[in-house]
Amino acid sequence: MVSFRAGASAIVATTLLAALSSLSSTASAFYIPGLSPTVFHNGDRVPLFVNKIFSEKSPLPFAYADLPFVCEPPKDAKRAWLNLGEVLRGDRILTSDYELVVGKDIKCQTLCVKSVSAEDAALAAGYIANDYNVEWIVDNLPGATKYNLGDGQANQQRRYRAGFPLGKVKWSKSNIHNHVTIRILYQNQPGSAGGKMIVGFEVNPYSIDQGDSCPEDPLKVGAFKVVSDKEVEIQYTYSVQWIEDKEVTWNNRWTLYLVQTGNEVHWYSIVNSIVIMLFLTGVVAIIILKTLKKDIAIYNEEEMKDDQDDGSGWKLVHGDVFRIPQYSSILCAILGTGVQFIVMAISTILFAVVGILNPSYRGGFVSFGLFLFVFAGAFAGYYSARLYKVFKGTSWTKNAIVTATLVPGFLMTLVFLLNMFVWSKNSSNAIPFGTFFALVVMWLGISLPLTLVGAFFGQRKALIEHPGRTNQIPRQIPEPLWYMRPRIMVAMGGLLPFAVIFIELFYILKSVWEGQYYYMFGFLSLVFAILLVTCVEISIIVVYFQLCGEDYNWWWRSFFASSFSSFYIFLYSMVFFTKQLSIDNFVPGLIYFTNTVMICIVYGLLTGTTGFISSYWFIRRIYSAVKID
Questions:
Q1: How far apart, in whole angstroms, are the C-alpha atoms of residue 145 and residue 45?
Q2: Of the ranges 359-373, 430-444, 586-600, which one carries the lowest mean pLDDT score?
Q3: Backbone conformation region of residue 559, classed left if phi is above 0, alpha if psi is from -120 to 50, else beta
Q4: Which residues cross the membrane (predicted)?
Q5: Nearest one of 205, 222, 237 to 114, comparing CA atoms
Q6: Is 201 helix (H, G, I), strand (E, B) or coil?
Q7: Strand positions, DSSP E, 56-105
Q8: Could you say which of 5, 76, 454, 525 has the lowest number of CB atoms within 10 Å?
Q9: Cα separation of 557 and 615, whole Å?
Q10: Distance, CA of 269 to CA of 131 (rounded, Å)
């Protein structure tokens, strides 16, 4: 078996190098190796895709083409092929009637005149009041509104915010944006006659009451197009500008979408996490050195065998420490699933660090995460079967089936029930029947068989040997001190893993629930590595002090000691919900908290399994170093 210390050091070293390389060149982190730019020439038609509307105030996106108050899609409109992640995040990409011809500026063009009923106008007013934004796509770039970052005219830097407002509320009235000025920024391809590469897609929206004509300059129109609960006729118009941009290149065109602020906060988080990890490392080192010193003394001085002090209380329970715990089959199942999540998380983060998963790969995180989880079922079955054999289980196939269905089945049930509420709102975030069927097939048709295959090889491995024998009669456990009680120890143990990640957690929640791009994969990988080391150390400390108190029921407690930080994450998510979001409807709130519960379950299984594996290794090592008659 590979030494844990060597494995942890390798993980930290690898992620540290990846973090430094990722942080040293932000622009290159978003270039997918092997992906070539699309080169356009004058006169080529560039398709503009409409996608969805989304809001920071609601986790319910809606397909733009299905909105009853906008222009209907063309009859020959084609839907873009979507990966699994895009479907699950509510993308519904469709071609539009907007005419974008390379090199051709359009001053003012009418797209359509839409007669909107009172009901649909009220719906539009509601979306505008809830700050919904529109997402269009050109050459895989989302349409963006421009803003400046920095103080002073000389220090201002151009930045993009993905999407543009559907409308705005002015003087307590909802005004719909019915005119857009589309600015396509391009870079001339070196060595090519007239070849152009698109490096920017800006959309400037306006709300104007055109009357019967399309204004050349929308800024000079004083009246806004108001939508309320009355029938209204809306004229949709647009202008197009092609502008050469000599500052932005195709390789770093995504950097304008990624706000380069807050790095000092991340470094503060890293330093804070490293201090916590070093403190725990020191405690674990003292425990191990003290233990080894006493063991050597026992070997050299026979009379010291009868010396029982507070530091050697753990030796008194050598006959019970490997006693089979209660609900051992359930423990095997959740630990197997925990291993599955660990493999998925590490693999996904590594793909992100090397640049394969980035904001330009829409839906990549979800797609890769799901596929990696499915194929990691073999690891789940293998570890669960090995542990099940230790607990003297009699049916490894039944254990493998429980491993593959217990937690995933619970999560799938939550997704199905939540999807019924989302469906009732006609949101594009509702999972289509075909996609849901594909998820079930991935689960039962791929993950379950792979779990059985892994379990087959796991049960064929030699039994994990434990030092010493287990007594037939359980030893009586003395009454612990108040601060050594299981609930208090578990609650205290979960605090430190949460302290390691809570600053990075804020940015992750903002990216998930406020529609912002998360791109700090170097920081994420480093924090994740520190989190795993912290879970290892806090579980070892909690279990060691528990055994010193002559309490040998460590199996479940080693799992909960680090996984309990998921409870603090849930509490923090409640604070984030009240302080950062403006969700005040039942279904959006239900979506938020249901997804938060599922995230906490995944996180708890991942950290709890890490703590259990390290504690199991630690206990086997210390008891194998003791002379037991």
A1: 23
A2: 359-373
A3: alpha
A4: 267-289, 330-357, 363-388, 400-423, 435-457, 488-509, 521-547, 559-578, 590-619
A5: 237
A6: strand
A7: 58-63, 94-95
A8: 76
A9: 10
A10: 32
Q: Are 570 and 597 in contact (CB under 8 A)?
A: yes
Distances (CA, A) of 132 to 1, 98, 125, 436, 582: 54, 21, 10, 27, 13
What's 398-463 look like in SS3? Answer: HHHHHHHHHHHHHHHHHHHHHHHHHHHCCCCCCCCHHHHHHHHHHHHHHHHHHHHHHHHHHHHCCC
Q: How far apart, in whole angstroms, are the C-alpha atoms of residue 337 and residue 154?
A: 54
Secondary structure of 330-384 in HEC code, one letter for each residue: HHHHHHHHHHHHHHHHHHHHHHHHCCCCCCCCCCHHHHHHHHHHHHCHHHHHHHH
DSSP H or E stretch at residue 526:
helix 521-548
Terminus-to-terminus CA distance in the chain, angstroms? Answer: 26
CA dist 310 to 290, 340, 482, 561, 586, Å? 12, 38, 16, 22, 54
Question: Which segments within 493-606 are labelled E, that is strand?
Answer: none
Tokens (6 digits) for 68:
């009853």
In the sheet that holds 157-162, the strands lie side by side as 106-116, 232-244, 179-188, 196-206, 144-149, 157-162
For the chain, the domains span 38-257, 263-291+497-629, 325-464
Nearest CA-CA partner of 330 in 553, 607, 570, 555: 555
The owner of tokens 């989880």 is 373
pTM: 0.87
Alpha-carbon gap, residue 416 to 431, rounded angstroms: 9
Quick one: tokens of 533?
A: 């080391």
Q: Which pLDDT score is estimated for 143?
A: 95
Mean pLDDT of the chain: 86
Q: What is the DSSP letter of 42?
A: T
State the average pLDDT over residues 31-50: 80
What integer pLDDT is reported at residue 33 of this predicted model? 40
The C-alpha torsion from 182 through 186 and 192 to 193, rounded to 10°, is 50
Nearest-Å Rg of the Cα atoms of the chain is 29
Q: CA 318, 321, 322: angle at the middle one, nearest 5?
A: 115
For 406-436, the pLDDT digits (tens) are 999 999 999 999 999 999 999 999 999 999 9
- The two three-digit tokens of residue 17, written as one number: 């190098």
CB 197 within 8 A of CB 255: no
Tens of pLDDT, residues 316-339 = 888 899 999 999 999 999 999 999
Q: How far apart are CA 8 and CA 581, in angstroms?
A: 37
Q: How far apart are CA 238 and CA 8, in angstroms?
A: 57
What does the block give as tokens for 206? 């306006």
- Beta bridge mates, 164: 134
Tokens at 277, concatenated: 């990890």
Model confidence at 167: pLDDT above 90: yes
pLDDT band at 156 (very low <50, low <70, confident <90, very high): low
DSSP type of residue 480: P
pLDDT band, residue 212 (cuts 50/70/90):
low
Dist. CA 620–CA 448, nearest whole Å: 31
Helix-helix angle 328-353:364-375, to 10 degrees: 140
Q: Amino acid letter at 314?
A: W
Q: Higher model confidence: residue 350 or residue 26?
A: 350
- The 3-state DSSP class for residue 515 equals coil
459 token code pair: 């049960």
* pLDDT at 308 > cutoff 50: no
585 pLDDT higher than 90: no
Structure tokens at 173: 């009235």
DSSP 45: B
